[in-house]
Specification:
binds tryptophanyl-5'AMP, single chain, 13 helices, three-stranded parallel β-sheet, mainly alpha, 2 domains, two-stranded parallel ribbon, 5 strands, about 325 residues, Tyrosyl-Transfer RNA Synthetase, Rossmann fold, globular
Length: about 325
């Protein structure tokens, strides 16, 4: 049986990259798969968070899921910390994960920066928690953006190591699903950096809560080059900012980069940006409005999370018992 698991950290400023790289793709998958979508608050605290803001962001990510079209009846939506089995499985998997595997993780190196000695153990162990999130539900598919590829490979390695150590075929090796035309959305100001929640420049990203004026302004200010749009994607080579805008258009229009090049070949970016802006407002505007409405109704959002916690918790508990039995932890 196929089961999907994915999640987003409640660290604020959910942006177009989170939407096009992940959440938008989940909406299509919920029709055909059993889906579990998590707000990974235990991941968020691997870096310092203000408690009030963390709570608000947890509700906000939930609101984004729902506003983007995730159906809380069909899918399980919950926040990670409310299902304690995530932490318990993390410990068991930590005991079979070689340090050498974690030392290869590029995201740790980037986030810890120069002060690696002062980075928390949680930040270092983060990929094991992510593996536990997925394996706890014995998920088979994980729809994410391109930047999570390495973490998913580690989750597969850990699943394989567990199966081999205990001579079982318990965990499926989870498959990444990196879908759509914009799997790695770049900053609107700098095509060499991915669009990120933590970028200080407000013009670098489209936030999911931006209104039409903000969207239009940011797209107008987006960096491009002086050449027109090419006839084929080959003409976007070494033009990171131009390629990024074309990919964003293709993803929002649910078409291919080839099609977009074909449609706008020879046009200048000033004209293309105005079309992109109209498309982005049409697609994101209604979502931003619904996020606003949901944020005004925290009781409703909390109810969704409570119900998701119950459903996720039931699966998690059953699986954790099975895992305890495999590992030899006595359940007297
Ligand atoms: P997070 O919160 O950084 O990002 C959430 C999702 O958004 C995708 N994404 C992007 N996609 C395209 N372009 C971008 N610029 C961009 N920025 C972010 C991410 O790939 C991700 O799919 N470790 C994960 C959260 C996590 C998780 C999991 C995911 C924890 N446990 C289990 C899947 C399964 C993270 O920090 O995502």
């Amino acid at each position: 049986m196929s089961r999907i698991f994915s999640g987003v950290q409640p660290t604020g400023n959910l942006h177009l990259g989170n939407y096009l790289g992940a959440i938008r793709n989940w909406v299509g998958l919920q029709e055909n798969f059993e889906c579990i979508f998590c707000i990974v608050d235990l991941h968020a605290i691997t870096l310092p968070q203000d408690p009030e803001e963390l709570r608000a962001h947890t509700r906000e990510v939930t609101a984004v899921y729902i506003a983007a079209g995730i159906d809380p009846e069909k899918c399980i939506i919950f926040n990670q910390s409310m299902v304690p089995e995530h932490s318990e499985l993390t410990w068991m998997l930590s005991c079979i994960t070689p340090l050498g595997w974690l030392n290869r993780m590029t995201q740790f190196k980037a986030k810890a920066g120069k002060h690696r000695e002062n980075a928390g153990l949680g930040l270092y162990a983060y990929p094991v928690l992510m593996a536990a999130d997925i394996l706890l539900y014995r998920a088979t598919h994980v729809p994410v953006g391109d930047d999570q590829k390495q973490h998913l490979e580690l989750a597969r390695d850990i699943a394989g190591a567990f199966n081999q150590k205990y001579g079982v075929d318990y965990f499926p090796l989870p498959e990444p699903q990196i879908l759509g035309a914009a799997t790695r959305v770049m900053s609107l100001r700098d095509g060499s950096h991915k669009m990120s929640k933590s970028d200080d420049s407000d013009y670098s990203r489209l936030n999911m809560t931006d209104d039409a004026d903000a969207i239009a302004l940011k797209i107008r200010k987006a960096r491009t080059d002086a050449d027109p749009l090419p006839e084929t994607p080959d003409g976007l080579a070494n033009r990171a900012e131009a390629a990024n805008l074309v990919e964003i258009y293709a993803a929002l229009a649910e078409t291919s980069v080839e099609e977009v090049c074909h449609k706008f070949a020879g046009k200048m970016f000033s004209e293309f940006k105005s079309e992109l802006s109209d498309l982005a407002v049409a697609r994101l505007g209604p979502i931003a409005r619904e996020i606003g409405e949901l944020k005004a109704d925290p009781g409703y959002v909390d109810g969704i999370l409570r119900s998701g916690t119950k459903r996720a918790g039931a699966i998690a508990k059953r699986h954790l018992h099975e895992i305890q039995d495999i590992v030899g932890l006595l359940r007297p």
